[in-house]
Specification:
Elements (H helix, E strand, L loop, with lengths): L7 H30 L11 E5 L12 H9 L7 E5 L4 H5 L11 H4 L3 H14 L3
Antiparallel strand pairs: 1-2
Length: 130
């Protein structure tokens, strides 16, 4: 005996699209918060954050590549690894509180916000008509 389920393909496509929207939104917001919390003296460290998929890459440091690479995240497949890196040679010192502008670091204070960011992205998808 077979069962035919109408509309399953459309439902699966909508689930996949909404999941991608949540992931991309969460990654972008997380990366943007880290970037904006990066101390600003010359702008080099702040503009050296990069988002990559399946490549532990530091990119073209100093060239504000978060926005340019976020599109790659929208093409992620399950099981792939996402990297958010910074190639500034003094980024570890900044993360460890070397700057008075970010005494608790940037990543360390943003990580606990991931659940909140994700919940906000899910709410946005629901408001858009899930």
């Amino acid at each position: 005996m077979g069962v035919e389920v109408e509309g399953l393909r459309e439902t699966m496509e909508r689930v996949e699209s909404n999941t991608r929207s949540v992931i991309v939104g969460t990654v972008y917001e997380f990366a943007n918060r880290v970037k904006m919390r990066t101390p600003l003296k010359t702008g080099f460290a702040r503009n050296s954050w990069i988002v990559t998929v399946d490549r532990d890459d530091y990119g073209d440091i100093g060239n504000n590549v978060i926005e340019a690479r976020i599109g790659a995240v929208s093409q992620m497949q399950l099981g792939q690894t996402l990297y958010i890196n910074n190639g500034a040679n003094y980024i570890k010192a900044l993360e460890n509180g070397h700057s008075r502008q970010a005494p608790q670091g940037m990543v360390a204070i943003t990580l606990p916000e991931v659940d909140e960011i994700t919940a906000d992205e899910i709410a946005d998808v629901k408001r858009a008509g899930w």
